[in-house]
């Protein structure tokens, strides 16, 4: 599968709207990757407020994640950023801080139903690692699912632990049987001035 991965910027907003508007994206349309950015119980439900909130965030120049394209069409999404950008993680019983080290969190994946099982999530993970490094990250953290039985793709937005294992992440905590916290140390890489497009 030949993919290109780009940061979500204002000029790519319509691509995310298209991706989340497809069949199989009902959870994404409710959340718009705002659930963990908010405090309290708000986040998932009628998605219009969340869509507007994410669009407003992107409009400020903030990059909340990366989009994968195949043949120019958006097929996948990953949400990542400095941990402090995800307010709800602070009080999560499963995902609360392990320590006070500065980390970037990889929180959510979404892959188009017709592109699943073809390595899109792994390509997005590789690109997320590179993107975080290029913005000064030295430690990445994620909160995958670790179950023996195969889960339905619609409920694997955190990603599978096996995928993170292959990418060199190590478990650092487990507060719930099937939900470890994993980390990967990286050397920061300065941005070069070239396009942040990545071919995978």
Structure explained in plain terms:
The protein has 200 residues and is α+β, with helices and mostly antiparallel strands. The protein has a single domain (4-199), classed as 3-Layer(aba) Sandwich (Aminopeptidase). It contains five helices and eight strands, in the order E-H-H-H-E-E-E-H-E-H-E-E-E. It is globular and about 35 Å long.
Distinctive features:
5 helices, 200 residues, eight-stranded mixed β-sheet, 24% helix, alpha+beta, Aminopeptidase, single chain
Set down the secondary structure blueprint.
Elements: E1 4-7, H1 13-20, H2 26-31, H3 48-59, E2 65-70, E3 73-82, E4 104-111, H4 120-134, E5 139-142, H5 161-166, E6 170-176, E7 179-185, E8 198-199
Parallel strand pairs: 4-5
Antiparallel strand pairs: 1-2, 1-8, 2-3, 3-4, 5-7, 6-7
